[in-house]
From TrEMBL, chain A:
Family: Belongs to the 4Fe4S bacterial-type ferredoxin family. RnfC subfamily.
Comp. bias intervals (Basic and acidic residues): 13-22
Protein task: Part of a membrane-bound complex that couples electron transfer with translocation of ions across the membrane.
Domain 4Fe-4S ferredoxin-type: 356-385, 395-424
Keyword set includes Transport: yes
Region (Disordered): 1-22
Protein name: Ion-translocating oxidoreductase complex subunit C
Cofactor: [4Fe-4S] cluster
Note on how the cofactor is bound: Binds 2 [4Fe-4S] clusters per subunit.
From TrEMBL, chain B:
Family under the similarity heading: Belongs to the NqrB/RnfD family.
Subunit-level organization: The complex is composed of six subunits: RnfA, RnfB, RnfC, RnfD, RnfE and RnfG.
Residue stretches spanning the membrane: 21-40, 95-113, 125-144, 185-210, 217-236, 242-262, 274-292
Name under which the protein is recorded: Ion-translocating oxidoreductase complex subunit D
Domain of life: Bacteria
Subcellular location per the Swiss-Prot or TrEMBL entry: Cell membrane
Function description: Part of a membrane-bound complex that couples electron transfer with translocation of ions across the membrane.
Topology class, membrane: Multi-pass membrane protein
Pfam families tied to this protein: NQR2_RnfD_RnfE
This enzyme's EC code(s): 7.-.-.-
Length: 438, 329
């Protein structure tokens, strides 16, 4: 069978074998949980507890500020020992609540189980918002915003993203294998909120066990599992929509412009937890892997757990880390330190040694055209990057710099080791700055 | 600070393929053709190969030193140009022709434009054409093949394409005998430049490059395909005067040009549609020059002309950006 996909893209060695057969383990509580207020795209939450307060698991410690924002909850019960700026995955020191767990892990009172049948779409949406649910694939866009299409936008299709095309990461894979019912319960809620009948689950063909299991679980529920070609960035929202529905999200537009909402499988499971059990988002599944991790694992982690604690639970580090990556190797971010806490968007933690990230010197572009062929946005990375480096910003814009999805395919494939996507990011920044001025 | 962490932005991985690996792979791919040429033309051919390769590497280092640029002969591109140049010269070229060619290729064809990646024309072809118009006698003194161990002495001979051109000019007809040597031409048993001779060895190398995913089919297929189509039309119209497409394929520099010279990444388009346009252009110009031009062989001129059109082709064959289809609908 010909697998569905999108034009462009490439397939880096996926390195999933380190962790794909490791069942999810629960990571024990660390001594200190560092919960940043900025854990989603949009306005960060506002701290609403003080040093010395005793909090319970699931208690709101940060209140949402604005529509594109969600509350932040205490990941465990214990004492607030500090409210201060701490090193954040973004590399800056940002406001955080530091909790010393009391080890009892008691839930806050008042979390009611809900019946999705009995609740209205608005009530469900409010539960999802109050539970602090964001896109768990790594983008951390507040889920309720995606679930509230503006008047006039008709949504007819829901796509569940179980692609997980980033190398090394296996968290979504394990989630689908171990908790298919949670995922599907979440799907039913999402579909009720959106009022859609058509639901697809996209899974890359390198997870045949997940495809089989989810297909079985979906029979008779009106949900279609779509096996997809193993290719990066198959999990990018617009590429996924094109592969499954054949619809192309217009440039500068959103999935809802073609009647589609995409949610990650992890998000669906979190939605189920929020609605059925009233539980806010205080934990997630994270793959800890990479050549320097003694024993790569898939972990259920408490949000706010320092990365060092995760590594320790995986048997520690083999040698000196040269690069700490939060997320996947293609789009994740390099970290300053293992003291940084895991957040809602932390789908992976990868440790690389000096030999795994060799520094190569940049050569001249030999115009091989590989970046052009690999680009899923179908723009010309080498041309845009060349303009960007000369500060020819309007030319970069004309060639489609703003359509870049920053997947990094061009930089990955470049034989001259040119930092193409980095140059395009620079151009995008300059274009936005110019637009603001005008 | 007790340890050093890399903090570059994503992606954190890169493909293993690097510029020098690409160059080296193309050099490996050309080795069978080099071996065949040495087999058929003996030590003089080897001498030309060595001189051109050493010459190009030497001139590149010298030029970069004089221009105060970092010396980058280690990337293999100069050596590759040297081999390609040698394959574009007659087997018995004298030493000064080979060295002059190397100097033209590297200095005029490449370094004055800024070095690797910036040359608009294929450097080896620039050198070949400069030599061809400056030293027409030396550049068209062909020797008949005398395979190693056969005891034959090398004698001068004409290339099949040259034979045909002369015959048509004199009698208006193509000699019967020409069509019968196709098998011999295919393995390389004919007069011609070092690299024109063995289509078989060149195709072997090309297969390796396809397997290594360094070559894509776009340029070679559209180049060869348009030659076959266009020459086929003429052949069908007047088979007594025009040679068959097969004859075009196995004689002259078509295979060398289509698989190794036109596909030079630097001087060919970067877009896939552009590559096809480029290949078709090369093919059409090749056939027109071969059939109606003043030279028997047209591949070099065709590629250089299309090199000049490359920026234009890239501009007009930009891929359709994601998300611009729905807008029109």
């Amino acid at each position: 069978m010909k697998l569905k996909t999108f034009p462009g893209g490439l397939h880096p060695p996926d390195n999933k074998r380190w962790s794909e057969h490791k069942p999810i383990e629960t990571c024990p509580l660390p001594e200190e949980l560092v919960v940043p207020m900025a854990q989603h795209i949009g306005a960060p939450a506002e701290v609403c507890v003080q040093k010395g307060d005793l909090v319970k698991k699931g208690q709101v410690i940060g209140q949402a500020k604005g529509f594109v924002s969600v509350p932040v909850h205490a990941p465990s019960s214990g004492e607030v020992v500090a409210v201060e700026p701490r090193l954040h995955p973004s590399g800056k020191a940002l406001p955080a609540v530091v909790i010393r767990p009391d080890g009892e892990d008691r839930w806050v009172e008042g979390l009611e189980p809900g019946d999705p049948e009995a609740l209205s779409a608005d009530q469900l949406r409010e539960k999802i918002r109050a539970a602090g649910i964001v896109g768990m694939g790594g983008a951390t866009f507040p889920a309720h915003v995606k679930l509230s299409p503006p008047e006039g936008k008709k949504i007819d299709t829901l796509i569940l993203n179980g692609v997980e095309c980033e190398p090394f990461l296996t968290a979504d894979h394990r989630l689908m294998l171990e908790q298919p019912d949670d995922v599907l319960a979440g799907v039913d809620i999402l579909r009720k909120v959106l009022g859609v009948s058509r639901v697809y689950i996209g899974i890359e063909a390198n997870k045949p066990d997940a495809i089989d299991l989810m297909s079985q679980a979906c029979t008779g529920r009106g949900i279609e599992v779509v096996p997809l070609e193993v290719k990066y960035p198959q999990g990018a929202e617009k590429q996924l929509i094109l592969a499954i529905t054949g619809r192309e999200v217009p440039s500068g537009g959103l999935p809802m412009d073609v009647g589609v909402v995409v949610q990650n499988v992890g998000t669906a499971a979190a939605v189920a937890d929020a609605v059925l059990h009233g539980r806010p988002l205080v934990e997630r599944i994270c793959t800890v892997s990479g050549p320097l991790v003694a024993e790569p694992k898939n972990l259920r982690i408490r949000i706010g757990t320092p990365l060092a604690h995760l590594v320790q639970f995986c048997g520690g580090v083999k040698g000196e880390p040269a690069k700490i990556i939060m997320g996947g190797p293609m789009m994740g971010s390099a970290q300053l330190s293992l003291e940084v806490p895991a957040t809602r968007g932390t789908s992976g933690l990868l440790l690389f040694g000096a030999g795994d990230v060799p520094l190569r010197s940049e050569g001249p572009c030999i115009r091989c055209g590989r970046c052009v062929q690999a680009c899923p946005a179908r723009i010309m990375p080498t041309t845009i990057a060349a303009y960007a480096r000369l500060d020819f910003i309007s030319e970069a814009e004309e060639y489609g710099a703003m359509d870049c999805i920053e997947c990094g395919c061009c930089t990955y494939i470049c034989p001259a080791t040119l930092p193409l996507v980095q140059a395009i990011r620079y151009a995008k920044g300059a274009i936005l700055a110019k637009r603001r001025k005008v | 600070m007790e340890r050093q962490l890399y903090l570059s932005s994503s992606p954190h991985l890169s493909a293993r393929e690097t510029t020098d690996r690409v160059m080296r792979a193309v050099i490996y791919a050309l080795l069978p053709a080099c071996a065949v040429s040495v087999y058929f033309f003996g030590l003089p051919a080897l001498w030309v190969l060595v001189l051109c390769t050493a010459g190009c590497v030497g001139f590149e280092a010298l030029a970069q030193k004089l221009m105060r640029r970092p010396v980058t002969v280690g990337d293999g591109s100069a050596a590759l140009t040297g081999i390609l140049l040698a394959l574009n010269l007659p087997p018995a070229s004298s030493w000064w022709l080979a060295l002059l060619g190397s100097a033209v290729a590297i200095v005029i064809g490449k370094q004055v434009y800024g070095g690797l990646g910036y040359n608009p024309f294929n450097p080896a072809l620039v050198a070949r054409v400069v030599l061809l118009v400056s030293f027409p006698v030396q550049m068209t003194s062909w020797t008949a093949p005398a395979p190693l161990g056969s005891g034959l002495d090398s004698v001068t001979s004409a290339t099949p394409l040259g034979d045909w051109k002369t015959a048509v000019m004199l009698t208006g007809k193509m000699p019967e005998t020409l069509q019968q040597g196709l098998g011999n031409y295919f393995v390389g048993n004919m007069a011609g430049c070092l690299g024109e001779v063995s289509a078989l060895a060149l195709l072997l190398g090309a297969a390796y490059l396809f397997w290594k995913k360094i070559l894509t089919w776009h340029i070679p297929l559209s180049f060869v395909g348009s030659v076959v189509l266009l020459s086929g039309v003429f052949w069908l119209v007047d088979p007594a005067k025009y040679p068959s497409p097969l004859f075009h394929l196995v004689t002259g520099g078509l295979v060398l040009g289509a698989f190794y010279m036109a596909t030079d990444m630097v001087s060919s388009p970067v877009t896939t549609r552009g590559m096809v346009v480029f290949g078709v252009g090369c093919g059409v110009i090749t056939v027109l020059i071969r059939l109606f031009g003043g030279y028997p062989e047209g591949v070099s001129f065709a590629i250089l002309l299309m090199n000049a059109a490359t920026p234009l082709i890239d501009r007009y064959t930009r891929p359709k950006k994601f998300g611009y289809v729905a807008e029109k609908a």
